[in-house]
Automatic annotation (TrEMBL):
Belongs to the pirin family. Pfam families: Pirin. This is Pirin N-terminal domain-containing protein. SUPFAM superfamilies: RmlC-like cupins. Residues 12-114 form the Pirin N-terminal domain. Residues 96-118 are annotated as: Disordered. It comes from Psilocybe cyanescens. The lineage of its organism: Eukaryota, Fungi, Dikarya, Basidiomycota, Agaricomycotina.
Length: 244
């Protein structure tokens, strides 16, 4: 039996909606989009890929018993919450909210894009951006360097992979999920743009993903390694979730 199995989640098969001010994709069931085959994966419940028009956003709304993180791909995002926190996130920044028994927050996109530069810690290598409390390098102070802490068995890695480059990631959990960010713009048809090929040493499994595509990864044994290779004509921004 193969040590790993990939199951594609194609971009055009996701839920999507165009609200003029908001163009969004839903990997899992969310709001009006409901699909029993794609409701959650381990502790991962939501992956929404949102494009928010400048000077608009999500008004104040409430959550409870969720851990929510926002990762900014372009532009700037202002975040406010009922704990009195206000912060402006720039390209590559991550904001983490642990809702506990209840919290209200808002998110608003600021002016049009000012910068599209990538951060060096993600260039052609994995950067750990979210990890469980108590994991190596996790710091609980706000705006600290290092991965944001969560109370769930979930670790998130990000990379910006150049043409012809490849990176490996050894899984610690029983499953994983990979997502290629749709950096070339909103496309609700078959995925295009950047292209990556994923494989695993010792396995015949192989899959090509384009922008907006993702894949469920079923890890067959401890120490299974994922190889991600950029086989396209431009850089690709990629997330990998390591899940229990």
């Amino acid at each position: 039996m193969s040590s790993v199995q990939f199951v594609a989640r194609r971009s055009e098969e996701r839920g999507n909606a165009d609200h003029d001010w908001l163009k969004t994709f839903h990997t899992f069931s969310f709001a009006m989009y409901q699909d029993r085959q794609h409701e959650l994966f381990g502790s991962l419940r939501v992956i929404n890929e949102d494009r928010v028009a400048p000077r608009t956003g999500f008004g104040t709304h409430s959550h409870r018993e969720f851990e929510i993180f926002s990762y900014v791909v372009s532009g700037e995002l202002e975040h406010k919450d009922s704990m009195g926190n206000t912060e402006v996130l720039k390209r590559g920044d991550l904001q983490m909210t642990s809702t506990g028994t209840g919290i209200s927050h808002s998110e608003r996109r600021m002016a049009p894009n000012k910068s599209t530069s990538c951060k060096s810690e993600k260039a052609d290598k994995w950067a750990k951006v979210v990890a469980p409390m108590g994991a190596k390098d996790v710091v609980i102070e706000r705006e600290a360097s290092g991965p944001a802490p969560v109370n769930s068995p979930l670790t998130l890695y990000a990379t910006i992979l150049g043409q012809g480059k490849s990176v490996d990631r050894v899984f610690e959990g029983k499953k994983g999920y990979i997502h290629v960010v749709q950096t070339s713009g909103y496309i609700d048809k078959k995925a295009s743009g950047a292209s990556v090929r994923i494989s695993s040493q010792g396995s015949s499994e192989e899959l090509t993903l384009r922008e907006g595509d993702g894949a469920y990864i079923f890890v067959g044994k401890n120490g299974t390694s994922l190889t991600v290779e950029n086989d396209g004509d431009r850089s690709a921004e990629i997330f990998v979730f390591d899940l229990d």
